[in-house]
Amino acid sequence: MLKLFFASRWRSFIDGGMPARAFQKASALLGITPIFYIGVRSSLASSPNIAGIENDLSESDCAIFYFGSPVAIKDPDDDNTYDIAKSCVAIGKPMLIYTARTFPRGNLASSGLTAASTLIDSEAEFESQLVSDFKRLFAH
């Protein structure tokens, strides 16, 4: 069974939905094992949690990242998701990046992430896009 890793610093969409909920629904529709971390902050980088994150990332078939609106969290700079995504690049792990329309996409490039990202406006759109992307990525 495929395992997909999901990480996001952002806990919710502006409309009150959860990025993880869309990820869970899309995973269930496709029979994929979801592994997810929400609220990934830089302050976690030195905690025991980082070992679990790194282990789950290495065991996954693909990593999914969501970067939301900077107004939705108190400290948008306290985000370890960038470092986790850069780990994917370093180990050659397939990944998909999604951003809220209000997310300053230049932040991805300035943090060293040059992979294409998909704009997301709602939880329903995110779920639909995930299903479409999963099918495209894992079509056998």
Walkthrough of the structure:
With 140 residues, the protein is of the alpha/beta class. It has helices at residues 19-30, 49-59, 81-91, 106-110, 123-137; strands at residues 3-8, 33-38, 62-67, 95-100, 117-120. A five-stranded parallel sheet has the order 2-1-3-4-5, with helices on both faces. Strand 1 (3-8), helix 1 and strand 2 form a beta-alpha-beta unit. Helix 1 (19-30) packs parallel to helix 5 (123-137). The radius of gyration is 14 Å and the shape is globular.
Content of β-strand? 15-25%
The structure class reads alpha/beta
Low-pLDDT sequence parts? 13-17
Radius of gyration: 14 Å
Helix content: 25-40%
Largest sheet report: 5 strands, parallel
- Given the C-alpha coordinates, what overall shape results? globular
Q: Strand-and-helix sequence, N→C? A: EHEHEHEHEH
Main-sheet strand order equals: 2-1-3-4-5
Nearest-integer average pLDDT? 77
Distance between the termini: 13 Å
The total count of helices amounts to 5
The number of strands is 5
List keywords for this structure.
140 residues; alpha/beta
What's the layout of helices and strands?
Layout: E1 3-8, H1 19-30, E2 33-38, H2 49-59, E3 62-67, H3 81-91, E4 95-100, H4 106-110, E5 117-120, H5 123-137
Parallel strand pairs: 1-2, 1-3, 3-4, 4-5
Helix pairs in contact: 1-5
Overview in brief:
The chain has 5 helices and 5 strands. Strand 1, helix 1 and strand 2 form a beta-alpha-beta unit.
